[in-house]
What we know:
Elements: H1 4-10, H2 16-21, E1 30-32, E2 38-40, H3 42-47, E3 55-61, H4 71-84, E4 89-93, H5 98-101, E5 110-111, E6 114-117, H6 119-123, H7 129-149, E7 156-161, E8 165-167, E9 177-179, E10 190-192, E11 194-196, H8 201-208, H9 212-221, E12 223-227, E13 232-234, H10 241-248, E14 255-259, E15 264-267, H11 282-291, E16 294-298, H12 303-318, E17 324-329, H13 331-337, H14 350-368, E18 374-379, H15 386-397, E19 402-406, H16 408-411, H17 417-429, H18 444-456, E20 460-463, H19 465-476, E21 484-487, E22 507-516, E23 521-526, E24 545-546, E25 552-553
Helix pairs in contact: 4-17, 7-8, 7-10, 9-10, 13-14, 14-15
Amino acid sequence: MMTDIEIAQAADLLPITDVAGKLGIEADDLELYGKYKAKLSNEYLQKIEENPTGKLVLVTAINPTPAGEGKTTVSVGLGEAFHKLDKKTVIALREPSLGPCFGVKGGAAGGGYSQVVPMEDLNLHFTGDFHAITSANNLLAALLDNHIQQGNELQIDTRQVVWKRCVDMNDRALRNIVVGLGNKMDGVVREDHFVITVASEIMAILCLAKDMDDLKSRLGRIIVAYNMKNEPVTAADLNAVGAMAALLKDALQPNMIQTLEHNPALIHGGPFANIAHGCNSVRATKAALRMADYVITEAGFGADLGAEKFFDIKCRLTGLKPDAVVLVATIRALKYNGGVPKAELSNENVEALKKGIANLEKHIENLQKYKVPVVVTLNSFISDTEAERDFVKEFCESRGCEFAIADVWGRGGEGGIELAQKVIKTLEEKESHFEPLYKDELSLKEKIETVAREIYGADDVNFAPAAEKQLEKLTQLGFGHMPVCMAKTQYSLSDDPSLLGRPEGFTLQVREAYVSAGAGFVVVLTGAVMTMPGLPKNPAAFSIDVNKDGTITGLF
């Protein structure tokens, strides 16, 4: 059996100009990055602003497990199936981070015969967007420390510097560092920190900005530190906005590549959903809606993270309204939630399935709280049995959801037709009455408690003393109206990754909160979640290589 990368490398790609031509996009509307990658020009984005808006379908999933769920694979396959049914469709996804590619998770181009290509380019440097974000983030950090070194006219309290440096790599040694060591000319000694690039506020800002003016306005509002009077110091105060925007100029434009079946896909932005807001760029999503009748997009990790943030942050801040949600699960993952070890997941076990399906049940309930129609799909594995599939089908349909099997990994778009037909039926027969989970007027603590109880299923929330003070301070500074971006483990509905299925009776632990003023939300850290991941004992990097003719191997 061919691996994902072997399937991708065996594909015959069309020039990206031909792929774009399927949507009526002319060559002059593209800025080419070689033969198979391009950015949409600003002129093209302006040209389509008055086009009718298509239907928006969000793909999300149950909590991820070592058994795999294949959310991106289903997103791509669903888009392929829409094309096979002669529906004008665009897929809009996030860009992968280098950290997981060399760590545990691998890339994010889909899999099997349901991929976007060129997968090596996408999973590695792509069009340089993440490098631009990293550079803009670290330019601001350099300007901040330089300002302190050059006399500190803004009276920045070096004990209250909140801006962190970033790098797009899992590097735990950079979580907590000391800068400024050496002689007097090497800067002021202080504690500093790194986050992974996908957790940088610059990433969130790029993904939420409407245009260059909005980008610059948001960059200017970034709070980098507090002064001796405990007042915010911003990027605008440091005169950093123009140079940062210059670094981000090209990164602001959405990228286009193609699927294995030569259909267009917009890939732009990539905040993680466990430690950031988990959605691709608003520019890409809105452009796709003006380019096609149907748009398939996704949000990261499980619905408790990515979908919640898609609804409560992205849609709230931009006016987007999803028309349907596809919830991805697998028999294997549900059995894992039911207590079956990974090595035994290929064996039929309906009893474990009945126990583990509580995780799927909670996600269905959560999505229905947003008043959006839900379609559940099982990403097919060869080990799935008829009895197991029939049980899940009956379970979902009894809860008011359409249900379909997706066999897109092995069959591409053809394997997603049943799912596509169910999604189209849902779009035609059920109306979305989308509304966010909570109102802007609630306090920050009330918003956190609402998400914890309604989405996670917590009995209570415990706020650490530091978090209490931070939330009070942010409210006093005028940020209480903002939505909350919950940083939480992806592996459980709770903040404890070991609690599988549908945990009950737990208390969510909130340890820290800070504002991303430019992005427009308050970040809330729960449990032991880290904004700078680490590598495992045997990282994926060990298996990646390139041969003498330039062919990359081992990437997945």
